[in-house]
Amino acid sequence: MRKQNSGFTLAEVLVATVIGIISIAAAFASYGYFNKSYKSISQKANINNTAREALSILTKELRNAGYVDPNYLANSPESNRTERTVRMDFISVSSKRFGGKYGQSDYLQLWYSNSAKESHYIVYMLQKYQDSNDYYLAKYATLNRHHPQGGNMYMRNELFIPYVEDFQVILKDKEGKILVPVCDSGCGSVEDSQGRLTVVNTKYGQLTKGQANVDLVHTAEIYLTLRSPKEVYNKAKPTKIINGEAPHGSNINIPADKYHRETFFVSVHTRNLAKHVAISEQTGTSIGESSSYNK
Q: Cβ of 61: how many Cβ atoms within 10 Å?
């Protein structure tokens, strides 16, 4: 009686081997593709989360800018503080000062007092990483900056936002016109060329043009461009950044690379600076200026 062979033939083994190799190669290729896609998406998501959280804090501080506690002037431990002198510190923007990798970014400082004996002086500017040519948005904060013994700096060069390519701050008045210059101590060569030292008369006495414009700020527009920490794209491509309105803001051409960049924008009503005068409909007379009135 003939005995049947239940094993595989050589051809069947070779076919199975080829199919197995193809399946394994396809699995590795799929893994590599999805792993790279995941890293790309996660970097983009991280940029969005970082920008959203940072702009939320920055928006809150811009809305606080210029707030003066009702008892601050009478009880402040800072020397020689009057309504006139505190108004000079409310907000300052210096164009292209500490301008980052492309020399275009702005410098922002603001001030507010949230109690009878405390004031906060805050600065945002780009700083360079020690081990690379990349920049981050740094934050400095000082308590009672004008104290006779010196203020207490409780934040110094804190990394506020990583990998920032551009940071633009554009201030506007109630009519939506761009205000320049707006600065006191935080001024640069651009503000000097705009006549920031020109003396003008105001209801608070004589101020420089840069100081007087602080009282007119109604809106702060922030443009923030972030870059991915690692390369994202397969092919290098050039990037053009246009933040703000010409001749203000930035216009940056970045050579081709594989990084992802994204710009975020927020417009903030600086409710404690330029005050809106509300008109009573019944009498046709002004019901006065109020720090709680938001246009």
A: 17
CA pair distance 166, 240, nearest whole angstrom: 11
**Cβ 237 vs Cβ 231: under 8 Å:** no
Residue 86: other Cβ atoms inside 10 A: 20
Q: Measuring CA to CA, which residue among 210, 286, 260, 278 is closest to residue 48?
A: 260
Contact 98, 137 (CB under 8 A): no
Strand-pairing partners, residue 223, are: 168, 265
d(CA 18, CA 11): 11
From first to last of the 295 residues of the chain, give the pLDDT tens digit: 555 556 667 777 777 787 888 877 777 666 566 556 656 778 888 899 999 999 999 999 999 999 999 999 999 998 888 888 898 899 999 999 899 999 999 999 999 999 999 999 999 999 999 989 999 999 999 999 999 888 999 999 999 999 999 999 999 999 999 999 999 988 999 999 999 999 999 888 889 999 999 999 999 999 999 999 999 888 999 999 999 988 899 999 999 999 999 999 999 999 999 864 444 444 443 333 333 333 3
Would you list the DSSP string of 223-268?
Answer: EEEEE-SS---SS-EEEEEEESSTTSSEEEEEEEES--EEEEEEEE
8 A C-beta contact, residue 271 and residue 63 = yes
Nearest to 167 by CA among 128, 219, 124: 124
pTM for the structure as a whole: 0.81
- At position 81, the amino acid (one-letter code) is R
- Least Cα distance to 88 among 185, 179, 181 occurs for 185
Alpha-carbon span 160 to 163, nearest angstrom:
10
b/e map of 236-267 (b: 16 or more CB within 10 Å)? eeebebebbeeebbbebebeeeebbbeebebe
